């Protein structure tokens, strides 16, 4: 590789990294929700299960943490999340991407934001003593508040989302679950 090509590559990366700051941080997740599976009703009828047990199994209460990324000049935020469902003993791993199409400055340090995005991930659980996994896909509508301090170096944010989704797995045939999750997150990012 000649000197001119090396110089162009170095100049491109230098300009790219100076054109925006990358926010890197962590967030805490609380995710209440509801899940519906047509197989639940069939199983409850065939085993004589109580309606109370069936209803409890449909509620979700997840909690966990995430690694989060965001740029300061392009309104896209990414998160890699791991959550534990406390009620049903499921482990979730997901990736979210949100585009903030609305950002309103509410003060010198604070702003409101809203956007749309998506989530994709997997859920690990045991069924009949076997480890099972599902594929989860969901669109998201996000909204929240953020506060920027120290000349754009530090961000604190609180956000919520409405996330209707579908879970697919192949156990004894194709099964599709519908869920409605309401993730609530709070976290920090440091911009470099």
Defining traits:
192 residues, globular, 9 strands
Task: Present the secondary structure layout.
Blueprint: H1 3-19, E1 22-36, H2 38-47, H3 51-58, E2 59-71, E3 76-85, E4 90-105, E5 110-127, E6 130-149, E7 154-170, E8 174-181, E9 184-191
Antiparallel strand pairs: 1-2, 1-8, 1-9, 2-3, 3-4, 4-5, 5-6, 6-7, 7-8, 7-9
Please report which band the strand proportion falls in: under 5%, 5-15%, 15-25%, 25-35%, 35-45% or over 45%: over 45%
Uncertain stretches of 5 or more adjacent residues: 49-53
Main sheet attributes: strand count, strand direction, barrel closure: 9 strands, antiparallel
Distance between the termini: 30 Å
Mean pLDDT: 81
Order of helices and strands: HEHHEEEEEEEE
Structure annotation, total helices: 3
Which descriptor suits the 3D outline?
globular
Structural class: alpha+beta
Give the number of DSSP strands.
9
Give the helix proportion (percent range). 10-25%
Question: What is the gyration radius calculated from CA atoms?
Answer: 21 Å
Descriptive overview:
18% of the residues lie in helices and 65% in strands. It is built from three helices and nine strands, in the order H-E-H-H-E-E-E-E-E-E-E-E. The protein has helices at residues 3-19, 38-47, 51-58; strands at residues 22-36, 59-71, 76-85, 90-105, 110-127, 130-149, 154-170, 174-181, 184-191. Strands 1, 2, 3, 4, 5, 6, 7, 8 and 9 form a nine-stranded antiparallel sheet that branches. By secondary structure, it is an alpha+beta fold. Mean pLDDT is 81; it is low at 49-53. A hairpin with a 4-residue loop joins strand 2 and strand 3.
């Amino acid at each position: 590789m000649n000197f001119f090509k090396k110089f162009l590559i170095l100049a491109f990366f230098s300009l790219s990294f100076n054109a925006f700051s990358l926010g890197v941080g962590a967030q805490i997740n609380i995710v209440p929700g509801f899940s519906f599976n047509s197989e639940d009703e069939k199983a409850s009828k065939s085993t004589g299960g109580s309606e109370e047990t069936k209803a409890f199994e449909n509620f979700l209460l997840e909690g966990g943490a995430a690694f989060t990324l965001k740029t300061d000049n392009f309104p896209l935020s990414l998160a890699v999340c791991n959550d534990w469902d406390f009620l049903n003993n499921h482990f979730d791993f997901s990736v979210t991407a949100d585009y903030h199409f609305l950002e309103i400055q509410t003060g010198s340090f604070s702003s409101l934001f809203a956007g749309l995005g998506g989530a994709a991930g997997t859920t690990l659980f045991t069924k009949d003593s076997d480890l099972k996994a599902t594929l989860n896909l969901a669109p998201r509508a996000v909204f929240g508040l953020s506060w920027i301090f120290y000349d754009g170096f530090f961000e604190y944010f609180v956000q919520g989302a409405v996330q209707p989704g579908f879970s697919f797995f192949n156990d004894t045939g194709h099964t599709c679950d519908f869920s409605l999750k309401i993730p609530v997150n709070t976290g920090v990012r440091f911009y470099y």
